[in-house]
Amino acid sequence: METQPRRAYPTDLNDHQWSRLAPLFPLPRSTRGRPRTWAYREILNAIFYLVRSGEAWRLLPHDFPPWQTVYGYYWRWRNSGLWDMLNTMLLKAVRQQEGREPQPSAAIIDSQSVKTAEGGEERGVDVHKQVNGRKRHIVVDVLGLLVLVVVHSAGVPDSTGGKVLLEKLFGRIKRSVYNRWCRLKLICADGGYEAIVGWVKQHCGWRLEITRRPADAKGFVVIPRRWVVERTFGWLGRYRRLSKDFEHQVHSSEAMVYLASIHRMLRLLDG
After folding, report:
1. Residue 211 CA: distances (Å) to CA of 12, 191, 215, 239
2. What are the φ and ψ backbone dihedral angles of 269, each rounded to 5 degrees?
3. Chain-centre distance of CA 30, in angstroms?
4. Would residue 96 be called left, alpha or beta, if left means φ above 0 and alpha means ψ between -120 and 50 degrees?
5. The domain 103-213+220-243 belongs to what CATH superfamily?
């Protein structure tokens, strides 16, 4: 099951990076079904190329597997929750590499409104930023590493979207398989989340701390803790597939954010 020889792209996985992911992919069937033509590693290389370069599926270079094959695996792995699982695994590995506990005890939340390229699920207008599209709501740890993402209409207020995001995170804690977030105690946010401070304490048992911009500040000011999540949005912005929301389904929008996060953390671990 050898891949066609080709010159490597900057987004390709090296041997060390692939060795971290390979155990999570199923072994090929030996007795039933049509043998795979393309290796999983080459499929992932094509997906990371698409996310980093911003290409459309049908415009993948010809030295990658056919776009229909790549998209089929992407769609299958998206629906299985693989991207979320890989992101979580790498988050723990990067934190340990930095001398921290695998599970974060503090996190920061924020949202980013982005335009959508065309029709699709859950579109709306963010009246404050005058953006017609969707919001990416993310939770990051103190290193700026992505913990969780939820995508919804840009017309949903931050307080409502934040409640959906944190409720999803809390739901994972209640399931034993997601017990990895049990150390979480403190979440930092901006003034848009002030309305849910009491709800977070009562429902989740966490302290939601609102960090405000100084009243006498003029121009750009680095706000403690909140700059971490803003930097994460900047990191994600290097992946051109995220320059707009090109996806029809919000599930795919979330998958693209996870893929960008996965690719970046693989490079952190390789460095």
Report:
1. 39, 7, 12, 28
2. -70, -30
3. 34
4. alpha
5. Ribonuclease H-like superfamily/Ribonuclease H (3.30.420.10)
- For residue 222, how many other CB atoms are within 10 A of its CB? 8
User: pTM of the full predicted structure?
Assistant: 0.91
- pLDDT per residue as tens digits for the range 129-175: 889 999 999 999 999 999 999 999 999 999 999 999 999 988 876 66
Domain ranges of the chain: 15-79, 103-213+220-243
Amino acid at 80: S
Retrieve residue 135's tokens.
């919001």
How far apart CA 258 and CA 263 sit, in angstroms, is 9
